[in-house]
Amino acid sequence: MSRRDPVAQAAVTASWSAGVPVVVPSIVLAETLFGNANDAPVNQVLKGLLVVPVDEAVARLAASLKHQSGMSGVDATIDATVVAVSVSLGGGAILTSDPDDIRRLAAAQPLVIRPILI
Q1: What is the Cα–Cα distance from 68 to 113, expressed in whole angstroms?
Q2: How far apart are CA 34 and CA 91, in angstroms?
Q3: For residue 82, how many other CB atoms are within 10 A of its CB?
Q4: Mean of pLDDT values over 62-75
Q5: pLDDT-based confidence at 92, cuts 50/70/90?
Q6: Residue 54, Cα to own-chain centre: how many angstroms?
Q7: Model pTM?
Q8: Does domain 6-117 have CATH number 3.90.70.10?
């Protein structure tokens, strides 16, 4: 969304129209933001989204998904956390620049999680 990606904008608009909240795991803010004025466009987008904290249960699920998928590293940890948040909320769509990693992590659990390339 911060890149003004039309696919992301369409997905968010469709979610809002359907009454489905658009959720952002708090860890994604650490990955995306700079901590300065460059964050202004992202901050505007975040006003309409639900930022959820990552608690211990979600963190442990992320670790398990990462292990089960055979992935490691910081990028895998963030992706696994995003998938774990989706699992904790019942599944759904994940906007991502790396759908293959999201699919790989999501395969380690039974819910339907659909990556959408942005």
Answers
A1: 16
A2: 29
A3: 28
A4: 97
A5: very high
A6: 11
A7: 0.92
A8: no
